[in-house]
Amino acid sequence: MKVRYRTTSGSESTAYLDDEESSTHKGFDKYTDEPVTVRWDGSAWIEDGAAPVRPGEEPTT
Question: Model pTM?
Answer without folding.
Answer: 0.76
